[in-house]
Amino acid sequence: MKEYFKELVIAGKIHAAGTDEPVINIEIAKEFINAGTNILLIPAPYTIPHFNEEDFKKISYYVWDYNQNREIDKKVLIMSSIDTTSDKDTIHQIALAAKANCTLLQHIGDAINDISLPENIYTMGVAIRGVKWQTHQMSSSIIRNE
């Protein structure tokens, strides 16, 4: 893939989309990584049937091992996708499970009407960063360095 496309590649599978195959497993994840993906997109634990924290952990630990002793531009990040319209307790549980298993980026999706519920975005941020840092992120200017 990198011989044809030199930019950042975000690839993976987060939904079955009507197929009769696993959404993702360790073998599928390895295929994406070996093809040159920079950010591996996988479902967060508990967001799809038959994919739980143990499945997530297998992939994240493989990526962790893969990244050891690699230059920064050769490392792979994991981005997990969180169910956007769940209740706050579910969002909190999923965000913590993903964080505990090496997710560096969390995608809360665009849900219905092109936006996730704002309270769910906030809940995810608090679960990941805590109230102090979530509030800091929300109140900081995007023009921090000017």
Task: Itemize the secondary structure elements and their pairings.
Blueprint: E1 10-12, H1 26-34, E2 39-43, H2 53-67, E3 77-81, H3 88-100, E4 105-107, H4 118-129, H5 131-139
Parallel strand pairs: 1-2, 2-3, 3-4
Pfam families: DUF7916
InterPro entries: DUF7916
Domain DUF7916: 2-144
Please describe what this structure looks like.
- The longest helix has 15 residues.
- 40% of the residues lie in helices and 11% in strands.
- The N and C termini lie far apart (37 Å).
- It has one domain: Aldolase class I (TIM Barrel, Alpha-Beta Barrel), CATH 3.20.20.70.
- The model has no long low-confidence stretch (mean pLDDT 86).
- The chain is α/β, with parallel strands linked by helices.
- It contains five helices and four strands.
Taken together, the total number of domains comes to 1
Runs in which pLDDT lies below 50 for 5 or more consecutive residues are none
What would CATH call the class?
Answer: Alpha Beta
Count every helix, treating DSSP H or I runs of 4 or more residues as helices.
Answer: 5
* Overall mean confidence score, pLDDT: 86
The counted number of beta strands is 4
- The gyration radius over C-alpha positions equals 16 Å
CATH topology: TIM Barrel
CATH architecture level-2 label: Alpha-Beta Barrel
- Under CATH, the homologous superfamily reads Aldolase class I
Pfam family, one: DUF7916
Protein name: DUF7916 domain-containing protein
Domain DUF7916: 2-144
Organism: Anaerococcus octavius
